[in-house]
Every structure is written in C-alpha cells, then in structure tokens.
C-alpha cells in the first residue's frame, strides 16, 4: 500500500488517536436491574490490583482461538491483572476440521483455572467474581443446534473449504461476497447436500454464540460475529432482511416453509447487556465453585472484532492486522465498495460499522512448525531451549536474510486458501539450484510467505481507493520486536504500528468489550477506547524500508508464479 494510490496509512501522532466512529446510534444500557450493571472498571486509577480483584472492579475476556484458549483479567483502564491459557488443536475428522465439544469445555475450565492461579500468584487472592465477562472465538464456521441446544453435527471450523458451490451461488444471489467459511455458506451447502440433520436445525450460531448460550441461557451474537453468519444491514445493524427473504425464496423448492430468521440469534451491538452468568454457566467455567454466578455478560464476539478493539481500530479510516493461525486485515470503511471482490469480506465492527476484511486461512502455524524442528535440533545437541526463545531467535535471524529470501519460495498453506483459489493446502519450500539456502533466507522466506496472500487481498483495497489513517498489528508474532512488524510494513507498503499490548491480543480486546458495558450509555465505543484505554498508549511505528519493499515485491511475483506448484501438490493424495 503506497501513499496516495492505495489505502494510505499515516503513523499516529504521539499521544494522538483516531477520531471516534461518529456513530450517534442509541446503545442499550446493560439492563434496568442494578445487579446486571457491572461496576466501572475505569473509575479508579489509584486502586491496587488486589483491591480491584476483591471488589470485582474488573472485567474478564475469554477467547477460543485456533491453537489456544486464552483468558485475560483487566482492572481500571484495561490494565492486565492476570492471564490464563490452555493449548488445543483442531482435528481433521472424516475430512472436516473440527474441535470436539468436550474439548471446548475441558479447555475453558483449564484456561479459567490457569487465570485464577495466576491472579493468586501475582496478587495473593483468587477472584470470586468479576465486574463483567465476555466470550469470543474464532469467527465463522458452522454450529447447528437442535431444539435442546445440542450440536447436531460436530463444529465445522472456518478452516473448511467444502462449501464452494454454496458460497458461489450465495455470492450471486446476495450481490456481495459470501466466503466459504461463513455460517450461511455451511448451512446452504448442507441443504444442497441434503444432509439428514438439516430439518432438525433450530439455531445457527458461532462457537462464541454457543458458549455464551450455555453460560447465560441467551441466544445472542455480537454484531461483528453475526456479520460472519449472514450479511448485516448497516442501517439497522441487524441481519439484512432483504437477503433473508431472498434466501428463503431460493431454498423454497428444497425446503418448503423454511424461514432463516427463525434460526438466527438476536444481534446486539457492543455495550448492550447480553445476560448474566447462571449457576450452571459458572460451574462450566469453574467446577471448583470459586467463580460465582450473576456476572453480567457483554455480547459474544468473533476474534476479528476483538482484534479491532485490542488495537483501537474501530473508527472509520483505521485498520488492523491480526496474525495467528490465520491472518486477516480489517479496514473500517467510510463508504461502500464499488464492486464485489472474492478477496474481501464485508463484516462489521462490534459497534456495527462496515468493515472490509482480508482473511487468509493460513497464518503463522508453518513458521511455528519450523521453530519446533529447530528447537528439537537444539535439544538433540544437548542445549534444550525455551520454545519462545527459539521462535524469537529464528525471527531475528530473518533480518539478516536477503530482501527477497535469497530466491527461496515458501508456502504456509496447511489448509486451503480461498484468496488464491485453493481448496486444499500443502506447506512447501521450493528452491532452484541458484537459490541461496541459508538459515536467514529460509526464515525470511517463511515470514514473507505468511504475508504474501494477505498482500494480494490488500492490493484489491488499493484498487478501490480505500484510505486508512492508521494500521496496527497484533498477535504473538509481534512479541519479537521489530521483525514481523518490519516485514509486514514491506508487504502492505505502509507504516505499521505495534503497541505494548499487541501480544495480549483477542482476550484483552474481549475484556475491554466487557468493561465497556459500564460506559456504553455515555460514550460510543471509539470514544471509550480512545479516552479510557489508549489515551497514554505507547505505540511503535515502523515505516516501510525501500529495500524490504522491493525484495518483497520480487518474492510476491515468484509466489504468484509458483502457485501451479502448490496446486499440483494439493492434487496429490499423500
């Protein structure tokens, strides 16, 4: 992204933040029952952490990510008080990427227990309550529930690419891009395939919506998460009624009397009360009984929305890049896009403002796999090393590589990649006899390969003339200062900012959305984040280096030219 001809990005001024989102939309308060209104978690800048925990002047965010379930407890002004995590992995079962439902609850319990232990270790007491709670999870995918709220089929994650026919037909029917991973694409594909469970579906939701329902008994979704289920009408900040009717008419021959609206959770914008933690829900999170029922919950959101909040990128002309198992960029729009693009999703912020999203199915997992290989090599030499240290060392080595990766070509495609038209993925490293195979070039090629697909989608935004004032990055990859940030700036041809909270990621953003419950009646989300959380945030901004930009351009040209190799490899059943 070059200034002027692409989404232009100016580095933030010291101490400055984007304007508010300009929304004058009325936002519901958390409820008329005083017990449902959380105490302010921004009211006191002098409260000690132990005082805030004991009083419940806190907010808890939990996010079910692709490889880790993470929790973050924050106090006044979003200060992190404790964290917890639990590692988990998706499984390919009968050709479908999924997580077992038992793993969801076992992972949540382990994550919450880890957080309670961390709070006690840091502050000398275990939280028995929090001021507010919020749950987020990987966006999209397929959670189909029967009338009792039970799963009809295993959760189908965003990673599945088996919905090609459905997504193509819906894109034409709706007049906007419907990605393979969206919930409506999964439902329609199940209808096309005449799957036997379809007549029993009573609720279509997301993983975050499913967990929230079990915790509160309420069938709701935050508008950002809902925008990955069915397209949202920007005027109503609810499902687009015209498209719902169009879908019902389209499937009438196959499913007479079908009404999509009857299956969909209620849509709520950020700051709206979304129920309270029931006794059953508290036991699901913490069987020890330490965590008490009655905590107010905010609307459940997707990991894209929490990433926007965690980077203060919810206002028009702001954007962020999130790097994890997948990579996606979110740019808040000032105006509608002129054309339909398969590289771009149209979703919303947690407040309901329109967003263009570039979503890449494959992120940093392949780089992590290489780090495990080198970590094992170090251990075999008699030098066992902490995995984070191995990862950081490898990333720093990339800065010594040639700008284009020394002629090496790397694909991080563990799964299919819709942006490049691949239904399946095969991680590859390809080189010619003239390539320079060094450790630095190998790692640099892996990082450049992780950003290459993203850059293809961002180029479409350039062609649309979309302008962005700030672009922030977050995720664990940015814990190693100055490496991924610098190479990302080269890939998007724009300054990239990383704040000191970048590595906290989604669960911290979810905790901020929970804390916003107490302020929503007085401030819009953008103002709240700018004044109550990020007013004194420290942001490191890296400008694109000319040599890096030229090297990445060479690598991307090679990356695109080599896609037939990837397609041929994916066609082979190994």
From TrEMBL:
A single GO molecular function term of this UniProt record: kinase activity
One Pfam family cited in the UniProt record for this chain: FGGY_N
Annotated spans, Disordered: 1-52
Domain Carbohydrate kinase FGGY N-terminal, chain residue ranges per copy: 59-285
Source domain of life: Bacteria
Ranges annotated as biased composition (Low complexity): 32-50
Entry's family note: Belongs to the FGGY kinase family.
Designated name of the protein: ATPase
Species of origin: Cellulomonas aerilata
